[in-house]
């Protein structure tokens, strides 16, 4: 089950990357943040039955921490402050949580980190000239 969720997350990240490269949306960072949240939430939803069977009530925080971490950049964007810090903090939390649970369900949460790092890196990317 974890392998299926991890492969699905990787495919999702690749599809988002392809859409961003082909379509070049004006709000690329927003697309990356929302996609990271969606992929993380879908991975958590897929892993719920497996995690509840294995860990019982601990599944709430085993799956909840990555979803809340992926929600932070979206909330920061909504508030309009510290978006880069939120991107990097969420990427750090997801990476740490993924490595902590690496032998179990944690691997499936790692692909979303790529989108959050890309969102943070988009801040320093050169902007096209308007002249």
From TrEMBL:
Source taxon at top rank: Bacteria
Keywords (A to Z) from UniProt: Membrane, Transmembrane, Transmembrane helix
Sequence intervals crossing the membrane: 6-22, 34-52, 58-76, 88-121
Name assigned to this protein: Uncharacterized protein
The species this protein was found in: Micromonospora arida
């Amino acid at each position: 089950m974890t392998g299926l969720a991890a492969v699905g997350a990787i495919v999702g990240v690749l599809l988002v990357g392809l859409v961003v490269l082909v379509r070049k949306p004006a709000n690329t960072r927003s697309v990356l943040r929302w996609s990271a949240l969606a992929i993380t939430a879908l991975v958590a939803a897929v892993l719920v039955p497996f995690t509840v069977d294995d860990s019982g009530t601990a599944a709430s925080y085993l799956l909840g921490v990555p979803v809340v971490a992926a929600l932070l950049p979206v909330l920061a964007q909504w508030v309009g402050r510290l978006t880069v810090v939120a991107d990097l903090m969420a990427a750090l939390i997801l990476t740490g949580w993924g490595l902590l649970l690496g032998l179990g369900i944690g691997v499936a949460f790692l692909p979303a980190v790529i989108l959050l790092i890309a969102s943070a890196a988009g801040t320093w990317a050169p902007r096209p000239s308007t002249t």
